[in-house]
Amino acid sequence: MKKDRNFLVIRLSALTLIILCLIVGFGMSASRHSEGPSREFFRSLFDLFETYGRASIVIIGSFFTLRYIKSKKKSLSGFRTLSLISFSLVVFIALMILPVATNFWSLTLALMPFPWSTMPFQIYSTGQFWGKSFEHPFGIDGPIILFTFYLVFQFIVFVGTLFLGRRWQCSMICLFNGCHAESMGEALPFIPHNKKKPYSKIVKPSIKRVLIVIQWVMLMTNLLLISLWAIYSYNRMLFVPPKTMNIIEGMKYLIFELILMMLLWIFIGGRGYCYYCPAGLLLGIIGRVIGQKILTNLSHCTGCGLCNDSCKMSVDVLRAVKEKKPLKSVNCTGCGICIDNCPSKNLKYSTTLLAFLEKARYWKKEKQF
Question: Which residues are paired to 10 by β-bridges?
Answer without folding.
Answer: none
